[in-house]
Each structure stands twice: as C-alpha cells, then as structure tokens.
C-alpha cells in the first residue's frame, strides 16, 4: 500500500471508529493532513502501521471518585488518566477538572501532548487526565475532599519515572497541593510525581508564568520573522486563568497592550490595557467573576457573550480559554478586526473551518502544540530540579524557557519549509513533533 492509500484507509477507519469522539477525531484529521509528506518519505512507517498504532493510547484508566459535599451529601464523579505515549519518556500532561471532561476531550488533549512534549526537546512522553467534577462554587474543603479521593485511586498508576501529572483548566496550585498531600500520605514524599507544585516543596520558579509567557515569546518570534516589533501592538486575549493572566503580563512587559480577558459568561474590554495586578487579585486571590474587575476599574467595560464576536481593532490574538472557542464567524470577525498574528494559548482553540479561513486570509498562526508548550517545558525543568534536589532562579528558568520557545519556533518553521508548506506552522509543528516520536517508536520495536 502506498502512503496516500494508507492514509485514506486509516482516516476512513477512524471516522467510523471514533464517530462518538468528535474532539479526538478533529485532532486526528488535522494531524494526518500535516504529516502525510512524512509517510511519503518513509515507506517503513506505512509498513509498520505507525499511524494506527499511535492513535490508540497505551492505556486509559477510568475510575469512580466518590466524595462528600459540605452538607454531607454523597457525590460521585468520573476520573480519568489517558497514558498516551511513553516513546520519549514518562507520560506527562495536565489534569483538567471541568464538567465537560470526557474521554474524547482527554484523548484529544493527550494526543496533542505527545507532539507538544516532543517539540520541547525534553525527555517526556504524552498523557492527560482529569474529571467531570466542576470546581465552580465549591468550598476549599470540598475541593480538598474531591482531590484526595481522586488521588487515592490515581496514585496506583503514577510516579516520578512513570507518569507525572500537572495542572490544566480547574487545576492550579491549590489543587496540586491537595493532590500532592494525598499522594504523600499513601506513597511517601516523592516530589517529582507532580509538577506545578507550590515553591516550598519542590515547585519551580516561573512554572506559574511559563505557559502565558511562552505563548508571548512564541508570537514575538513570529513577529520578528515578518519584520515587526511587538511593542505598540494591541492584543485580544480570551480566558482569565493561568495562561491568560501571564500572557497579558508578558505582553505589557514587552510594550504591547492586552485589551481584553474573558470567562465562560462574558468579557472585559479595557482599552488602557488590562491591569494585571487587579486581574490576579480578582481571579487568583478572591476567585470572583470578571464583573468585579469592571467594578474596580473605570476604563473597563464588561460585556456578556464571547470576546471573539467583539468589533475592535487589534494586531494580535491569544485565545487562552478552551477548545473550539473560535469558529468560522469569530474567525471572520478577527480578520475584520485586523488581527494578523495568533498564538494559541489554549489547546485547539480554533476549529477546522476557522483555521482554514484565517490561513487563507494570511493570518500567521502559532499552533497550540508549539505556542503553549512553555508550560510543559518548564514542568520538565521542574522534574529535573526535583531529581537534582536543586532549585534554579527565576532568571535561569525564564532564560531556558525563552531558548526553548525560540527553538520550537525555528524547528516548526524549518520543517514547514522543508516539506513544501512554507509559513504553515501548524504543519511544521506536527511534522517536527511527529518525526522524533516515530523514530523512537520504530527503534523501540513498536512496543
Ligand atoms: N495551565 C497550563 O500550564 C496550560 C494550559 N493550557 C491550556 O490553556 C487553556 C486555559 O487553561 P488554564 O489557563 O490553565 O485554565 P484556568 O482554569 O486557569 O483558566 C481557564 C479560563 O478559561 C475560562 N473558560 C473555561 N471554559 C470556558 C468556556 N467554555 N468559554 C469561555 N471561557 C472558558 C475560565 O473562565 C478561565 O478564565 C486550556 O485550553 C488549557 O488546556 C495549555 C498548556 C498549558
Ligand atoms: O505541565 C504539564 O505537565 C502539563 C501542561 C499541559 O497540560 C498542557 O501542555 O496542555
């Protein structure tokens, strides 16, 4: 079978097999389109059926998570860990606590994570996990009891050299602390088992900032390629969590203006630039809605709905909320708004028709697996510090992060050019990330 026939047969198979997993199918379709030229070049990958093997996780663990709320009611959620690929190292990837979590979403995230982690140049495989538990409106004690029950089961399957979870939507320092405490109670103190830890027991300086800062370092490389300066640019940001906050902070440090942030019900436009200290207070300390930001800042206006539907001139966009937040109408609005550069802070924030439209309009897109890889890259640096029983300074870690983001950009840009897709960083990132994983799988005998 030649490469074209193999890819066509594989895609047909996937469309039947994964019809009930739309997000996973979406990511497979995007990926396979990019890596087709690699299969043309490497008939041995076709012969070894690499694509179909790679698309099935090495293991999926699914378990019940019983917990009690503050009124003493017995509650239950489903927990998961998708251990997708250990070709390059221990499974590595975040945990998401959000009511929309299901197997399709975690498989899409886990699959992306394999190639993102490969792009970082660090020795880490790909995984993802989480639960359909909704942290919204829960007390600290409820979050603690849930996290303890979740870890009581998860600890059987993870370890510093086996699988190292971290945070994602709904899982930040507070949750990682509760998860770590329960792991320690059962298995003993092994600080390399989770990353994104508080600093006092093995967390890395700059991990909190890393994903948002990294997304900005990445867009800065994109701007430089086109001969443009980041200073003076206006940026639309979505989300108001870990990634959005630190993307806004780094943009302003580099002289750009972040004019928006959003949450699941509405968004803020602040033409004078988001006040990051106020945003941190509202979201990280008080854990309130964005309306509290608007109440405290005269220049800010709160709107209901999606920030991507807002008519406003900007140069850059950093979607940093969730998957498929930008669809075709929002892509058209972004083009109308004058946006020319997008760095995907969230995972898969643009759906396929939106991506196609933006590429056709010559918008330069930094795909998630490259642009938001700074978080997991610094997680790998946290693992390295834990193994050495050392902690590096903020400047050291931030310097390494900048170098890693630059390398990822250069590798994606070069791969795109080498495979006849010049300027398409989506294709370039997929190809560069995949080639390393494919070589490792082949050399390990496709175990
Ligand atoms: N935290 C990290 O290190 C990394 C996170 N990411 C991705 O970045 C995105 C944001 O993650 P974090 O900032 O860590 O999470 P977070 O929980 O700190 O913040 C998520 C933000 O998105 C908003 N949001 C959630 N669902 C939404 C929806 N349906 N519509 C609009 N807004 C919504 C929330 O209100 C919140 O402001 C996710 O796609 C995540 O997978 C990617 C790489 C690393
Ligand atoms: O830091 C990590 O291990 C995970 C980060 C993550 O979940 C992601 O890159 O999407």
Question: Gist?
Answer:
Pfam families: ELFV_dehydrog (PF00208), ELFV_dehydrog_N (PF02812). With 447 residues, the protein is of the alpha/beta class.
- What is the CA-atom radius of gyration, in angstroms? 21 Å
* End-to-end C-alpha gap: 23 Å
Report the biggest beta sheet as strand number plus sense, adding barrel if it closes.
Answer: 5 strands, mixed
Tally the helices.
17
Oligomer: single chain
Bound molecules: 1,4-dihydronicotinamide adenine dinucleotide, 2-oxoglutaric acid
Helical coverage, percent range = 40-55%
- Strands of the widest sheet, in order across it, are 1-2-4-3-5
CATH fold-level label of the domain at 209-366 = Rossmann fold
Describe it:
- The chain has 447 residues and is α/β, with parallel strands linked by helices.
- Among the domains are: 131 residues, Rossmann fold, CATH 3.40.50; 158 residues, 3-Layer(aba) Sandwich (Rossmann fold).
- Helices cover 49% and strands 15% of the residues.
- It has 17 helices and 13 strands.
- A five-stranded mixed β-sheet has the order 1-2-4-3-5, with helices on both faces. It has a five-stranded parallel β-sheet with strand order 7-6-11-12-13, sandwiched between helices.
- The longest helix has 25 residues.
- The two termini are 23 Å apart.
- It binds 1,4-dihydronicotinamide adenine dinucleotide and 2-oxoglutaric acid.
- The site of 1,4-dihydronicotinamide adenine dinucleotide has 24 residues, from helix 9.
